[in-house]
Specification:
single chain, 186 residues, alpha/beta, 6-stranded mixed β-sheet, two-stranded antiparallel sheet, 5 helices, 23% strand, globular
Length: 186
């Protein structure tokens, strides 16, 4: 697996729904954790640019130690040039969710925290506006990055986040490829 971008998040963050919305891929989508057991790839087209997006299995606390799909999941993330952190906006503690994911990437190592990342708060169509604004602010503070507000179901905010991903991926493709521990970096 080598992809331009990898979707990371806790189980049920809406990663498979997002992939099916933005590409012709048809991953299994269900309302229970760990529906995605193997990475699913899709080709995304935005404006005049195409890139490969990988829907990676859900990440849980302790993954760097082999909990859940563990290092297997993180090994797939290692082969992606950039990371889209997809956070379930219907969750009570979106900042903590981000910190959990980020902590697992840091604990795993292998340069995952050095990869360009984009942060998106998903399921915005299921959150009252006042709560959505608070969650976005909390996530922005925790991540130190702009937060895209999106819905994989309705399509709200999708073009904006895809353009942000394309803006990161284009220059990465032009950069010389470097050898990593697992092979050639994208």
């Amino acid at each position: 697996l080598i992809a331009d971008a990898g979707l990371v998040g806790l189980p049920n963050a809406g990663k498979s729904t997002f992939l099916s919305r933005v590409s012709a891929a048809r991953p299994k989508i269900a309302d229970y954790p760990f529906t995605t057991l193997e990475p699913q790839l899709g080709v995304v087209r935005i404006d005049d640019f195409e890139f490969v997006l990988a829907d990676l299995p859900g990440l849980i606390e302790g993954a760097h130690e082999g909990v859940g799909l563990g290092d297997r999941f993180l090994g797939h993330a290692e082969r992606c040039a950039t990371i889209l952190h997809l956070i379930d906006g219907t969750g009570a503690r979106v900042a903590d969710t981000y910190r959990t994911i980020r902590g697992e990437l840091e604990a795993y190592g292998h340069g995952l925290v050095d990869k360009p990342e984009i942060v998106a708060l998903n399921k915005c169509d299921a959150i009252p506006q006042a709560a959505l604004a608070k969650k976005r602010a909390a996530l922005q503070e925790a991540s130190g990055r702009p937060v895209h507000v999106i819905s994989g179901v309705s399509g709200a905010g999708i073009e904006s986040v895809l353009r942000a991903m394309a803006a990161v991926i284009r220059p990465a493709r032009r950069a010389p490829r470097a050898k990593t521990q697992t092979g050639w970096a994208p």
